Every structure is written in structure tokens, then in C-alpha cells.
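Hi L.,

You mentioned the student needs an example of a multi-chain input paired with its predicted structure. This one should do, with 436 residues in total across all chains.
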Amino acid sequence: MPKIKMPRGNPSLDMTPMVDLAFLLVTFFMLTASVRVSEPVVVDAPSSTSDKLLPDNVILITVDDKGKAFYNINNFDVRKNTLLQMGKQYKITFTDKEVERFGKMTSFGVPIVQLKQYIDMDDPQRLKVKSPGIPLDSLHPELGDWIRFGRIEAARQAKTQKDKAETAGRDFKYEPMRFAIKADGEASYIAVKDVIKVFTDMEIYRFNLITNLEQDK
Amino acid sequence: MAEVNTGDGGGGHGKHEKKRAKKASTRIDMTPMVDLAFLLLTFFVLTSTFNKAKTMEINFPAKPKDPKDLPKINNALTFLLTREGKDGKENGIYYYYGEFYGPGNKDGKPVTIFNKTDFSKEGLHKLLLDKNKPTVDALNALEERYVKKEIADTTYKRLALAEKGKREALTVLIKADDKAVYKNIVDAVDELNICNVGKYAIVDMGKGELDILNSIKKK
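Structure written out for the whole complex:
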């Protein structure tokens, strides 16, 4: 019987399609993904059946299980301007570097007098430190001020963007500012009610409560 | 002394050998690039967050300018949320129908009795569907017409919204005491959304209600 001759193939295979795919995926993930940021507090939001998505333009108040309030506003420029306005209100001057650093931070929960120190910390140290929460009682209505200035600055920025778009002849879709509350399921109702009262005192009556999508039990 | 080799690096070839262009392969070794690509891919897959947070929209009642200027609510169902039990970890939910009459009220009505229910399917869900039956039935009829293509989807949405906001429709008031946690509220509101209750509000608990609730809990 004749011997079966194995075909002498080239052991290296063409990787081009695989590389194409890999880079396609890399590009896709790079463009779509938002980086997970480390928050100073971990909150276990309660679950609900609502499947609405959170809008982008939002002021987020986080309430942790102890009832401490944290503030966050999305946009980098708006954040910076909000800090400057707050500094003006409370007679605290922030250096340019501090303002820049604050712009890149996420939510925070310290009174304004401690904020300077908090901004100057390194990122890992900042995560370790225990935040006392933003005061919201009638003597120190800081949370209310943060929300008010954030709202004003966001509106101002939307205005400049709109003007810019109009001079360039483009359409500008204005998305109104929304207010979201992300509270821990075990947070006391009283604490959440206090935060809501800050909003209702400013005649803001519509909120987005952040929840996890309920899984089938 | 060491010789500096300026030649083609081959060395050892004869002087008279003809120089020949090397036949280089046109293929590049892509392995390092692929390694890098997959490394990046893994990194982005692991660090990215896809799921945007889900939210529940809710409206709070505006404060009336005049405290006496409260709207009259007919067909109201009030839920009282609390936490009870020995360790204070059990979710308690009580309800009453209609208006609240405390002990010794002016109208001489009997004191409102609070009924207990729970967050299970047999409890709150069933109760709400039962109380909200006219609206649920009307919505089901609407949906049937929509499925049969008798009405357009915008009309359907509009009619459904109108049906939920009808004057006779069930109005639910949610009141929580200081023991209650945020999760209780969200659960209750969520259940209302499931049961198509269009009119609900989260309001403060009155003193009379709180007293009765505490006395029930003590038992």
C-alpha cells in the first residue's frame, strides 16, 4: 500500500482577520465604555421594575445607609464653576489647581470648610477617609447651595453651548437638568426625606430615584 | 585590536561572492500586536461599565400656599410604612381606606382601624389590584383595542394616561414613620406602578396616625 503523504502545510496561520476583529472590539469598547469611577461611598440601591435610563444631565445626591448625603454633578466645566461659586458664597478661595482637581473628582460628602483639605488628598487616601456627609440643616444649608449653584452653572453652560451652536448654524438640543437621588435601601426614610425637602424647598418636585432593575425571583 | 565590522554582518563569506538582495519574507510577525490588542480588549471589557443606572421617576406634591387649601381626595387608600418586630427589621405595612378619624374626632365617627398587609404577591399586590379594579379593567380593554389595531399607539398612550388620572381613580397616599427605611418606600411605589395606580403621593404622617400605629405595633 502506498504511504499516505501528509501535505506539508505552513504551520503559521493567517492572523489578519483575528487581528481585525480584535482591534474592532478594542475600538468599540474604547468608544462606548465609560470608565468605572471609584465613589467614596458604596450604596446598595433598592430594586424596582422600572427600566428607564438615567439621563446624562443630572445632579446626583447619594444617601448612604447612615443617612449621609453626597453630591455629584457630571460636567467638568460645570463642576469647576460650581465650586468657584460655592467658594464665593462661603468666602473660601480655591486655587486654580484645586479647582482643576475638583473638576475631575466624583461625588463627595464633606462640608465646604473641609473641602480644600479633601481636594488636596491623593486619590487612594481620599477613598480611605470617612466622609461626614454634606450638611443640610437650616443652619448650614450647604447641600441646597450646591444644588442651586450647580443648577445655575449648568443652565449657563447650556446657554453658551446653545449660542455657540446657533452661531455655527447647528441645532442644539437642550436637555433640562434632572435631579437624581440614589439612596441605600437601608437608609432611614427620615434622611431621604430631609434630602427631598431640600429639593422641594427649591420648588423642585420631580426626581429620579435610582434603583437596580429587579431580577426575577 | 578588535576589528570593526562594517560589512553586511554575515562574515566568513568569500570576498568574491556576488552580493545578492536578500529574499525577505513580506510577512510580519503579528503575534506581539495581537497580544497587545487582546490585552487592551480584556482591559476595556473589565473596566467598562455598560449598564447605565435605572431610575424611577417620581413627582412630589408641591407645597400648597395656604395649608387649608389642600385638595379634596376621594377614593383614597393610605399606606403606613414602618419597621417592626423584636429587632426592628421586619417590614410593616398597614392601610386604611377613606379618610382618617382619630380618637375623639369632631364628626363623632368611629376611630379608623388599620389593617395589616405585607409586600408579598398575596398582600399588597392583590389588595391594590382589587381596589384599583375599574382602572385596571379599563386599561386592559384599551390594550385589547390597541393590540387589535383599533387605536394608534399615541392614542393608546394618551387614553391610558387619562384613564389613570381620572377623578374617580384610586388615589394612594404613602406615609412612612421614622422607623421606615428607603427601601420600603421604593417597594411600595414600585408596586403602585405595577398595579397601574396613576395617582399617588408620598406625604408626611399625621400625629393621630402615628399614635395609633405605635399602639398597634406594641401589641
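You could point out the following to them. The longest strand of chain A covers residues 206-213. Residues 10 and 37 of chain A are 47 Å apart (CA to CA).

Best wishes,
N.
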